[in-house]
Design goal:
two-stranded antiparallel sheet; mainly alpha; elongated; Receptor-associated Protein
């Protein structure tokens, strides 16, 4: 078996003319191409489009949809690729499709043409195309992939929008404060000094904070960048620390629930897609694990795979992963295993949690708006009182003196 793996690796390396990750062990008579998370294949391709621009996610989806239409109409694969290479929306997508067409024209299978571009086609995608070519269900699997990509992209955009919304508001508030401290506050301070107006302690404190912010405005930005770099080096590049960090993400109040449910959707939808496309339980778990970004969820999938490999079932590892896989999800999967319909159950779970994520995201947005409105209101009132209180006091003194 090891010799067969090594021989397969040599063949693929020779065909792609670059560095390719090794094949995983042959499980259930299926060769599963595996790429480690965060590691991409590098190829010695002299493609100008790879250097000039990037193919957008939606362009890939549109290309796949058009490829399905041409194949279903009876157009040969090579002719379909050449046709789409001329109709691409951008130079980047045209160059990508043209490279694939040239590779297929040399006699290589379509899945290897996709595998030449790991930046756009991940290991799940490539393995599904490989399995579909072997079983003669290419258009069916392509359609499933298009649906999968669309639903995944919509949910991802919504979650990212909800998580970045607070960040955008904070940046906007900091920008306003920077403008005030650099242009508005100095004018008030000069005016009070010229008029010899007594400045109360609260206003004096505000002026000092403003002075500090004008000089050291760059310090918070540097600290944030250092924290990001520290997170990348200390946590992301160390498997154990990354696992701890990913577990912590799932426990963050409010946002952690969204991240957790999103990970469940990602896991279940990918798993269901692989099973419905004809891959075995072992292969589908292996590929799903490498497509999940959260390592806590990926570890639970590894435990499921190990149990199947030992000849066991899903119940024991599912119960042991209760902190990552909710008990209700475990119950549904156990029922699906008993009835032989895990693919359908996983898809149903993905749909349920997809709706829950969208509701949670909408609720988060509705809750954050009044909170930030109150925060901005407090900041504005504080600024107003700090800047205008000395002037109001001076007017009162003049009025009292004249009376």
């Amino acid at each position: 078996m090891a010799e067969k793996n090594a021989e397969g690796i040599k063949k693929i390396r020779k065909s792609t003319k670059g560095k390719v990750q090794s094949l995983s062990q042959i499980v259930s008579e299926e060769e599963v191409i595996r790429r480690e998370p965060g590691v991409s294949n590098t190829f010695s391709m002299s493609l100008s489009f790879m250097r000039k621009s990037t193919v957008r996610y939606q362009e890939i989806t549109d290309f796949l949809r058009q490829l399905i239409m041409l194949l279903e109409s009876g157009t040969p694969l090579l002719k379909s690729l050449k046709t789409l290479a001329q109709r691409g929306q951008s130079e980047a997508i045209r160059g990508l499709i043209n490279d694939m067409a040239l590779y297929v024209e040399e006699g290589n299978p379509l899945w290897q043409a996709f595998d030449r571009h790991p930046r756009y086609f991940d290991t799940v995608f490539v393995n599904l195309i490989k399995a579909s070519e072997a079983s003669g269900t290419l258009t069916t699997v392509l359609q499933r992939l298009v649906d999968y990509r669309q639903r995944r992209d919509l949910l991802r955009r919504k979650v990212r929008g909800a998580l970045f919304y607070p960040i955008v508001l904070v940046i906007a508030c900091l920008g306003v404060l920077l403008l005030l401290t650099n242009f508005v506050v100095p004018q008030f301070r000069d005016m009070y000094e010229k008029q010899s107006i007594k400045i109360p302690p609260a206003t004096e404190l505000f002026f000092r904070v403003s002075d500090w912010f004008r000089v050291w405005w760059w310090l918070p930005i540097v600290l944030i960048l250092i924290l990001i770099l520290f997170y990348q080096v200390w946590f992301i590049r160390n498997p154990l620390r990354r696992l701890s960090a990913d577990r912590f993400k799932l426990k963050i109040p409010i946002i952690g629930k969204i991240i957790h449910k999103y990970a469940i959707v990602e896991m279940m939808r990918t798993w269901s897609l692989l099973l419905r496309s004809g891959l075995s339980m072992m292969s589908s778990l292996e590929l799903t694990k490498y497509s999940i970004h959260n390592q806590a969820v990926a570890q639970s999938l590894q435990s499921l795979r190990d149990s199947i490999e030992r000849g066991g079932g899903l119940e024991a590892p599912l119960r042991a992963s209760a902190d990552v896989i909710p008990p209700v999800v475990a119950d549904m999967l156990i029922t699906g295993e008993e009835s032989g319909s895990i693919d359908k159950i996983a898809e149903q779970i993905a749909d349920i949690y997809d709706n829950e994520v969208q509701v949670a995201v909408d609720s988060l947005g509705e809750a954050l708006q009044p909170i930030f409105t109150i925060v901005v209101g407090i900041i504005v009132v504080t600024l107003f009182v700090s800047l205008f209180y000395p002037m109001i006091s001076m007017i009162e003194q003049i009025t009292n003196a004249s009376v």
